[in-house]
Design goal:
It is built from no helices and six strands. By secondary structure, it is an all-beta fold.
């Protein structure tokens, strides 16, 4: 049996950015685990895109994808 702490997101900075993507965001929360295969999924209407991210000082850092 494997048990994991639930992931909780407390803050995303910045709060918004252009739909053209490329904005670096920082996700602050708990329950994150450092791994070489970290990713975040973004949804924009019916479109969905997954991007890789990295772990820095307990936060997840990634760049938003382009939806245009």
């Amino acid at each position: 049996m494997l048990l994991f702490a639930p992931v909780r997101i407390y803050e995303i900075e910045p709060k918004c950015g252009p739909a053209k993507g490329g904005t670096q965001i920082k996700i602050t929360g708990t329950g994150f685990t450092n791994s070489e295969k970290l990713s975040v999924r973004f949804n924009y209407g019916e479109a969905s895109s997954e991007v890789s991210c990295y772990f820095e000082n307990g936060d997840l850092i990634c760049r938003t994808p382009s939806f245009f």
